[in-house]
Amino acid sequence: MKPFLLVIVVVATFLTCCQPEKTYTVATAESGGYTYSYVSNDPLKVRIYTLKNGLKVYLSQYTDEPRIQTQIAVKAGGKNDPATNTGLAHYLEHIMFKGSPDFGTLDWAKESVYLDSIEHMFAHYGTLTDAEARKNYYAQIDHVSNEASKFAIPNEYDKMVSEIGANYTNAYTSEDRTVYINDIPSNQVNNWLQIEGNRFRTIVPRLFHTELEAVYEEKNRGLDNDYNKTYEALYAGLYPQHPYGTQTVIGTIDHLKNPSITAIKKYFDTYYRPNNVAICMSGDLDYDKTIAAIDKYFGDWKPNEQLPEWKPTPATALTAPVVKDVYGPEAEWVTLGFRFNGRNSGDYRMLSLINLILSNDQAGLIDVNLKQAQKVLDPGSYVDFSNDYSAHTFTARPREGQTLEQVKSLLLEQIEMLKKGEFDDWLIDASINNLKKQKVQGSENNYSRSNDLVVAFTNNIAWEDYTAEIDELKKITKEDVVKFAQEHYGNNYVVVLKHTGKDANEVKVEKPAITKVTLNKENKSPFHETLLKNPVDKLKPRFVDFDKDVQKGKMNKDLEVLSTPNTENDLFTLTFLSDVGTNNDPRMDVAVDYLQYLGTSKMPVAELKKELYKLGCSLGVEAAEDETYVYLEGLSENMEKALKLFEDLLADAQPDEEALKKLIDGKLKEREDQKKDKSAILFGGLMNYGLYGAKSPFTNVLSNKALGELKADELVDIIHNFTKMQHRVLYYGPRNQTELIAVLNADHKLPDALKPTPPPVKFEMPEVKNPTVYWADYDMVQEEIMFLSKGGVFDAKRIPITRMFDEYLGGNMSSPIFQELREAQGLAYSAFAYYGTADRKEDNDLFYAYIGTQADKQSEAMKAMKGLLVDFPRVESNFDVARNAILSRIESERITKGRILFTYERARKRGIDYDIRRDVYEQVQHFTLDDIAKFQEQQIKGKPFNVVVIGDKKKIDFKALSTHGKVQELTLDQIFGYEKVEKINVEGPHQ
């Protein structure tokens, strides 16, 4: 089910006519002994420093909560890999988490000798061509690697950043850049900088051969991803002479099989230098203290005076369409792309505008002519901006009986309309203001803010130009758009036709034999010990006070109104929330989807969407299993006008039989497509089957037959009755409660008496008595496996120990499961375990453990995971890390803005009348490892597990599967239930 979601756009006259044109000029200033530049009228108030060694520092202050989003950006990525040794940048990203000569090691002097030997051995390994000789020599590498591992402290970096309270620790490598990410408490800036300043000095390829296995797994996951294959084909066609198209970030299989540590070190020494790096931070920071600390830990980092200048390969013009065919198990689609100049070019502004004229989810040419008219499935477009070139990409899926060529033609027709100027003039102003509104929303999020800094640095965009980009769009006229389109959108495109079928070129990275390495889990390096002793000003946690932070009131008919103020800007969100979902009526999600194709007796749907687009507001409707909510958001000054339109739609939506027929036909095709979606099969169908059996919330859907019998009046009646049933109002915005209730009383129409909500269908998880392994066949390189069990009935008293258990056992890269399965044995790219607390007080908790592994590692990986679930891994140092991580995060996190209301709602579902984090914070301080072990013994250890597996039946080891329970294949009809559920006659307020 896809929610009805309309893009928010600000009224053109509000931002362009009522405000004077801003100027963005660069100035310099000095504070705290450091000189910085800044830009006038910059809403992010960014200060840009350049240290003596060339290191760029971008700082932006935002005090929403005492946390700081950090991103360290290296201006080098996959395109900088030599063509003869691809994948270096990505390998290096992984190795950067292995530590340094100061941490991650018990004895660097001894360990380094082994690591030097391993480097030379891999160099020799790359020269071998005989398969048996390579196998025998890799066994020698494995032996030396095991000796080296005796001196390694795995994941010490992750332990340290977790202890200081970091969230979302990660990194990514693109074609143009490599970026290292942490979200840290504001009181831990010095500790974080001490860690980062140390690891960016020297690369240490520690535990290299097990991490190599992780990269192999990542490559195989990419080979199982039809989207990944599609975009590799698209880029190969768009950039035939450029590394964007001639090589991939993760590298070729041949290069992965012959990694060069020496080449990786050379890459590091070349590009990981201060004059090629920027530290980008946004959050509750002190400018002067932060830059001084950065200078302390990074100031003596030596620059590369011979930093190579990147010169992009000139692109040969595309003079005729390039057609590429891709095959894989997922449903078919079309992807079509045009090549343009890079992010730091005039093309950026024009493409940003043109893309919204074509596709803005509401009033663009593609939205009106293809999506609203239901001519194809999931049409849309976007621009992938890269440094050297950009791609304007169009996608859509065929409806039943439609060919990929027909889909392609329909997409191209919209571009032809653009070239002829066949679009409303006001779309330009509306699209510009939509981008401006997105900037305002992004400024409320520290990740978005810091990412802006990364984009500006890595794309060589002066901050004054970056800040002024949207305002520069105002200079573009319709004539400019049409001329640009006529000049740049011709037969110069690449189209990838994604077919459902066997990939004749299927390959995989084979598993080398490796021995489990030593894990010194309990040890800490002197660097780590010193870090823990550093003095830190302690932050005090702040919990939501449901009595003070949630304003409670009543409007007409005693309807509950909950609100919290927006004191930051003039944006609002108004939500009508009902406890009726698909478990109450499985027709609900169909009605929600139907609404997007309906108008009123006074206004056709296309006109309605245009009016909302002009008002700078958006509306949406979404149905979940246990609730449905409709919401309106946008500019506060236009709330009344938008609310009237929305109320008219909910009360006066007019049935449209033709739209319904197309909707049902599209849904039937989407259902067939979903049966080809690996994630939907595993995390939707198989997981629910393993927990509930054949009847579950997932299969509580209308059968295909019942879906086809739906009537327009029937669905419209559901829509009309939404606000006639019991519901409540949630509001986040600048108006006070009195003003809000006055608006609601005037515009939110209610019946004389609100109808009660129909009762939901209850689904119970049965106890696992006879373990079963449910499996589904899927054409893939890897296998994905889950162990599942029913938990106890929800108990709020269990939440603190549950949080402690999840953080300890499977919370991050320093957890025992990740360390054992990935670090020690190289058995999986992704592995974790989670005890999930129920969302409602009457429901059961659940437990699941996940492994994504190569098919030839299935037996080993499952055995290792099962062992960890049965024999609780006791690692005292990991427990300390987990506890400190929870405490530090709670001390620094703040639930603000509209999240306050949904925190309150979630607590009410669970029968809790206070912020449960208070209990977590108080109890975690006193937990011991014995407490976690006891929880594991009570909730997990003695319980049998159902297992679900998705993989290629030719590669699954069924004999090994049978050791975990009775093996049963499930058909796709069994998994999804479309053909098994009979039409439900719902009695009550919907009739």
Automatic annotation (TrEMBL):
Protein family according to the UniProt entry: Belongs to the peptidase M16 family.
Native species: Chryseolinea lacunae
Pfam families per record: Peptidase_M16 (PF00675), Peptidase_M16_C (PF05193)
PANTHER family, sorted: NARDILYSIN, PROTEIN YHJJ
Domain Peptidase M16 C-terminal residues, every copy: 262-435, 748-866
Gene3D superfamilies, sorted: Metalloenzyme, LuxS/M16 peptidase-like
Tagged with keyword Protease: yes
Protein name, UniProt field: Insulinase family protein
Xref: InterPro entries: Metalloenz_LuxS/M16, Pept_M16_N, Peptidase_M16, Peptidase_M16_C
Keyword field: Hydrolase, Metalloprotease, Protease, Zinc
Domain Peptidase M16 N-terminal: 64-101, 595-687
